[in-house]
Amino acid sequence: MLPIQIIRTRILRMLVATCTMTTVGHAAETPEDDWSTFATRDEIRPVCSRQADGGRNRQVCLVIAAGEREAVDGGWVKMFPIQGDRHWRFSAWRKTRDIVVARRSAIVKITWQDDDGQLVRGQDDLVRPEYPLDKSSDADGWTEVSDTYWVPAGATRARVELRLRWTSGGTVRWSDIQLREAEQKPSRVVRLAAVHFRPRPGSNNAEKCALFSPLIAEAAGKKADLVCLPESLTYFGSGKTMAEVAEPIPGPSTEYFGTQAAKHDLYIVAGLTERAGSVVYNTAVLLGPDGKLQGKYRKVCLPREEIEAGVTPGRDYPVFPTRFGKLGMMICWDVHFPEVARNLSNNGAEVIAMPIWGGIPTLASARAIENQVYLVTSTYSNPGPDAMTTGVWDHTGKRLVESSSEWGKVFVAEVDLERRKHWNWLGDFKARIARERPANGFEN
Questions:
Q1: What is the DSSP string of 311-356?
Q2: Which of 85, 149, 308, 388 has a beta carbon 3.0–4.6 Å from 153's, enabling a disulfide?
Q3: Does residue 94 belong to any structural domain of this protein?
Q4: pTM of the prediction?
Q5: Which residues are catalytic?
Q6: What residues make up the domain containing 79?
Q7: pLDDT one-digit tens code per residue, 348-403
Q8: pLDDT digit string (tens) for 174-198?
Q9: Are 223 and 410 in contact (CB under 8 A)?
Q10: Could you tell me if 248 and 277 lie in one domain?
Q11: Rounded distance, CA 188 to CA 92, Å?
């Protein structure tokens, strides 16, 4: 009788041999037909197979397994006929087992090609391979991987790769794989407002908060969806300590700003000082158009001044759904550390509101670029060399509104959350972040 290890090795070789063959199916209604296999190098070729009822809703699925390889990179590939200068939507469902970081290891790559198999770059040499994003998962553990694309003129086919890589174990199953012509994705336009104001008057928290009422009204008059107010606004110019102005959240100040949010039918982010028993936090709050507190963020990175004042850092990176998209918050010194914005974007933030005392504007640009988010700031700094400004930054790191040394200004920028930035040398960086960022080093 052969040793069990020899039997396993022979079985694995048979499966690998099967994986190298181009397989043509005969059931035209099955989307898993006409797929063949590939690998970046033969020595790291994964094990590919079909499973008749292993897909979502017990349909046929394509399976990629690492087997006993130390690492793999390869999978299934298919050429889909397409027409350029139109929108196409890719969708598939993915289920993994024993894969540590599925977002990096179990991916889809789409390349728009001409009849000769050459990459079609599109207008201004902007289009590169696409990487559909992970969406929600169902109760059975299947994750939707999908996106809609404008395909450049001249493209006649799409090379779709279902890929398993960078893992020494585990299995991925792909089901319900489709590439179909589609309507253009509707835009998600949002107007982001940043308030440039120093609340010097006022002897108590209520009076400080009331100073922002006309500025919120002005933002509403400019049809703002979100208004970002500055950091620790009840503490600024009060002559008191942070502990002395600290109050519970929810509390009187959140109630006031909630009333303003409901009055003007918009969202408000405000920087406050929070007391939770004996603990004091530097906190940003989100009030919704229903007048209710939607959530809060406690500043994670504290400068020495706040440390010496007895302020405690937060630990969490919450992201909140709004009617225009997903919103995260961070505060001032947080911008000097890439982990904060990265963890917020990892958790889904599309817009980050940042009340800030002062700082380095280059870092605001960096956080916006490296996470492909819109960043909204409200600062106490006057514009100047290396001075943080009140404004809105886009995916290229550009500030979309002019800065001003005049206090009491409200800046509004209109952005489309569905619009992505393509660079001619890296393509759609937003889609690449999840597929290529480190597997560890941050919270997620």
A1: --------EEE-SSSEEEE--GGGGGSHHHHHHHHHTT-SEEEEEE
A2: 85
A3: yes
A4: 0.89
A5: 231, 299, 332
A6: 13-185
A7: 999 999 999 999 999 999 999 999 999 999 999 987 777 899 999 999 999 999 88
A8: 999 999 999 988 999 999 999 999 9
A9: no
A10: yes
A11: 24
